[in-house]
Amino acid sequence: MSAVDRSPARTDDADDPLEWLVLLDGDGSNAAESIRWRGGPRLQTAYPWIGLAVLGAVIVTAAVVLGVVSALWLLGIPVLAFPAIWAVASVVRTEYAITNRRIAIRRGVLGVSVETVGVDRVQNSAISQHAIARAVGYGTVTIEAASGGTFSFRNVEDPTAVHDRLEALNECGRPGDLPGSAAEWEAVLAEIQGWRQVLERSS
Question: Which residues are in the YdbS-like PH domain (predicted)?
Answer without folding.
Answer: 93-165
